[in-house]
Amino acid sequence: MGSLPQELSMCKQLTHVDLDNNALSGSIPPWLGDLPLLGELKLSSNNFTGSLPLNLFNCWILLVLSLDYNSLTGNLSEEICKLTLINVLKLNKNQLSGQIP
Q: Is the distance from CB of 46 to CB of 24 less than 8 angstroms?
């Protein structure tokens, strides 16, 4: 088990992150929201815990967000509405609560 390396935060040209099924753990790092070209984030089937970082919703060009099959908790924030271009949103098999705004 491990976490996402902080060094990835320096990859400002990164457009896709696909790390499904890698036994990653800990919190989803807020710096993912600082990647200006991120269009696809797949972190399904890992062991992420905690709430969704609000900074993640700053990725306004995000088309795919797959966070299913983790152990995420907390309420869905209104900030999720910032993802106006989202085509795929997978949040199932977590312990999230509330409605999608």
A: yes
